[in-house]
Give the backbone structure.
Amino acid sequence: MPTAQKEATVAELTDILKRAKGLYLTDFTGLDVPSFTLLRKQLREESVSYRVIKNRLAKLAIKQAGVEGLDDVFLGPTGLVCADEDPIAPARVLTKFAEETDGKPAIKAGYIDGEIFVADQIERLAQIPPRDVLLGQMVSAMQSPISGLAFTLNGILQKLVGTLHAVAEKKKEEGGE
């Protein structure tokens, strides 16, 4: 029989899931409290939340949020990682943290833009640079040909001015004699 508290928890989770741009499910077995606190701090710095949830309530919230294909992932202890801004930031933080702590927490699955990602795909996602870096690289790539064109045109103009100056000097010399 559902209680008001459980219904409120499901409603809150559903709202979080609907707003989330990236969703990751982890198994935090074997992670001690200080490590867990450190992980949450690192995730918070990236505007990411980490919640430990009951599988039955999470399944209800996921169904209400319209997220499909994750029902079979809710086995054992499950942590729900939600990103409101950068959907790949949790993958970077979780992967880096797992490397430092012997694979804990284990990433069960990820869900971004209606697509489910498994552990090895998430590791590849984690290698993608942050959004700011990607934007900088794109601007640099777009700016490079434009800069090259500007330098080329500037060189042509300098040669033209130099040639015109030389012609003017020669005319002066010829007319002055």
